[in-house]
Amino acid sequence: MKIGDKMPNNQEQFKDLLRTNGLKVTYQRIAILEVLSNRPGEHLTAEEIYDLVKAEYPDIGLATVYRTIQLLSDLNLIDKLNLDDGYVRYEIGRKNREECHHHHHLICLECGNIYAFQDDLLENLEERIKETLGFEVEDHEVKLYGHCKECINEKA
Amino acid sequence: MKIGDKMPNNQEQFKDLLRTNGLKVTYQRIAILEVLSNRPGEHLTAEEIYDLVKAEYPDIGLATVYRTIQLLSDLNLIDKLNLDDGYVRYEIGRKNREECHHHHHLICLECGNIYAFQDDLLENLEERIKETLGFEVEDHEVKLYGHCKECINEKA
DNA sequence: CTTAGTGCAAAGCTTTTGCACTGCA
DNA sequence: TGCAGTGCAAAAGCTTTGCACTAAG
Predict the structure, then answer these.
(1) CATH 1.10.10.10 fits domain B1-97
(2) Where does Fe cation bind (chains A, B) (predicted)?
């Protein structure tokens, strides 16, 4: 992967966003966003992102990856996912992809694969919570653990 | 708090459970479960549990707290909660308390308080997922972030 | 030029592990 | 008495930070 190979439009938007926020456009920042952009739906750890970027830009440092991840997260360009396995994972943000605005995770306990799915069901729930408890929901994180189709079939 | 002050019945059940599993009954294990039992709905870190137990049993070691937490979790007596603040938290398990079998968390972004609520809504969702995706849900974790009643009122 | 951003290495943090000792059964 | 359980300290492993250097604007 080389900068500019894919999503040039998205990339320009990113550069503008950086400039708008008084931040500098660096190849490290672009490369990291690019790596994540080219892998929608994948959930990468900092180390994995580091390795992927390093393949193209061997000079990058792990600390920069961590700092950039933080930055991208603050800019709402990427989403965090914690699977309680000791790593924090990141994926390119929902808001940049057409399909989904409500997006949850199905985690297979056998193969470890992660599936995404959309659902509006929680909107009812959030309204109900507002009425019952006076709690105003702003964001949510839903993780469903179980057994995926493939693993179920394999056992049969 | 002293061993035996509260929930003696629950405590006997715990001792039996340990024996049944070929595990030894130690004052450390009882004290840790006791601390959590006396604080239903609170979400304590290992360090917090350590400090609470230490008040009564100054000899206890932090490593024992970690090992016992693991044990209690394996025995399904306590539930894990990760708020992504660098600590893993624990609370006395749902299965030991009458009220709830479906139990989610409302986390206030302003005061940090955590509220629990029950809901069966997800059962529909799980059925739908099974039908649509063939994914069999076994467990779920739902965290809703927002603003609690108190914090909303305070601003008014 | 100016200073935000970077790379490197060291430090920080929670959590885990090794090992000798203790105490439950 | 025998071995699971414990306490202590050290190790582990992810993430953050300090600092001198680099490069964006």
Answers:
(1) yes
(2) 102, 123, 140
Segments of chain A assigned to CATH 3.30.1490.190 = 98-156
Which residues of chain B neighbour A107 with C-beta distances below 8 Å? none
Q: What's the farthest any 2 CA atoms get from each other in chain B?
A: 57
Query: What topology is assigned to A98-156 in CATH?
Result: Dna Ligase; domain 1 (3.30.1490)
Task: Using CB atoms, pick whichever of A115, A134, A135 lies closest to residue B135.
Answer: A115
Q: How far is A12 from chain B (nearest CA, A)?
A: 32
pTM: 0.88
CB contact under 8 A, B144 and A135: yes
The pLDDT tens digits of the residues spanning A21-74 come to: 999 999 999 999 999 999 998 999 999 999 999 999 999 999 999 999 999 999
Where along chain B do the CATH 1.10.10.10 domains lie? 1-97
First to last CA, chain B: 40
Characterize A129-147 residue by residue with b for buried, 16 or more Cβ atoms within 10 angstroms of its Cβ, and e for exposed.
Answer: beeeeebbbeebbbbbebb
Which bases of chain D are contacted by protein, using any atom under 7 A from a CB?
A: 4-10, 13-18, 23-25
For chain A, how many residues are written?
156
